[in-house]
Design a protein that fits this description.
This protein has ten helices and no strands. By secondary structure, the protein is mainly α. Helix 1 crosses helix 9, helix 2 packs antiparallel against helix 8 and helix 7 runs antiparallel to helix 8. The longest helix has 39 residues. The termini are far apart. 35% of the residues are buried.
């Protein structure tokens, strides 16, 4: 395989100007959405801390993904880029993907523990521990991604379908599928626990019981987590399947539409980043309220205050 294969020879539409402009615009929309989401998350005071830390971490990675997608679109106007620039670009893309997977894995484990041990959970899983897990997700991703990037080929033209060696694609794909398996296994167990608690435990508990309140809150949080996980998994599996094909079928990376497929799976991955803030606002009333206030420049909050004052008068 020729490492200097011109990307223009591997795509039918990925280098078309309208598509490149769309990518830049779409990435810009994602950047704006997550800047607003992060600002709203920082203002949330009643949001469960496990969700607040996890969704903040996810918004940061989605924000970086949006920035890299804009950069990726802009760089398509430049055919010749250095091998180092290509490695750094792919390193950022891989880092955000891995941090997202690790964050969702930890969030899934957190939800599992909250249903397994609803009374012990609040005293065991502290804010400090959640913050440490957030930091660990970036450290683990760094340790995993950096050696994978070291397996990159030296290239005169940045070409994402031929950038990694066989071992690099295998390592990256196996790591991704392993974490997706952990997420699915956790939520399968969560589903079993939720059914048991709804059908057997909750009906036997007194109304207003502390354990009942804890279980109901954890179930609501679990549903919110699931609404984020399902589209993420569905939209991210294609890129790992494609990397698996690239690792075993050398002809795939040199086919006429190799970069078209890469563009398509990257777009699906970014579509998850686009949907996340919409899901957060849909499932979290407090976040939705803060977003509305920011978009109306505090008008809604002022109107509420004025209405309350006039009512009291």
């Amino acid at each position: 395989m020729d490492n200097s294969t011109n990307p223009e020879a591997l795509c039918l539409f990925c280098d078309e100007i309208p598509w490149i402009i769309f990518k830049i615009t779409f990435g810009g929309i994602i950047i704006v959405l997550h800047i607003i989401t992060l600002a709203a998350l920082f203002r949330c005071r009643q949001l469960k801390m496990s969700l607040k830390y996890s969704f903040t971490n996810l918004s940061v990675t989605d924000l970086i993904s949006g920035i890299m997608y804009v950069y990726y679109g802009i760089m398509q106007f430049f055919i010749h880029t250095s091998s180092l620039e290509c490695k750094i670009r792919f390193w950022f893309v891989s880092m955000t993907s891995c941090v997202t997977l690790f964050t969702l894995s930890m969030l899934s484990l957190d939800r599992l523990l909250s249903l397994e041990f609803p009374l012990k959970y609040d005293t065991t899983i502290t804010n400090k521990l959640l913050l440490m897990f957030t930091f660990i997700s970036w450290m683990i991703a760094f340790v995993f991604v950096t050696p994978t990037v070291a397996m990159f080929r030296e290239m005169t033209i940045c070409n994402f379908v031929q950038v990694m060696t066989h071992d690099g694609y295998i390592t990256y794909t196996c790591g991704g599928f392993l974490l997706i398996t952990v997420i699915l296994a956790c939520h399968l167990r969560i589903f079993v626990l939720a059914r048991r608690q709804i059908s057997k435990i909750l009906p036997t508990m007194l109304h207003g019981n502390r354990a009942t309140a804890a279980i109901k809150l954890n179930m609501k949080t679990t549903v919110t987590t699931a609404t984020v996980l399902v589209p993420f998994i569905l939209l991210n599996i294609p890129i790992y399947v494609y990397f698996l094909c690239l690792s075993f079928e050398s002809d795939v990376s040199s086919s006429d539409n190799a970069l078209d497929i890469m563009d398509a799976v990257l777009f699906l991955q970014l579509l998850s980043s686009f949907l996340n803030p919409i899901i957060y606002a849909w499932r979290l009333p407090e976040l939705r309220r803060h977003v509305r206030r920011m978009l109306s420049c505090g008008k809604s909050e002022t109107e509420t205050t004025n209405y309350s004052s006039s009512t009291e008068a």
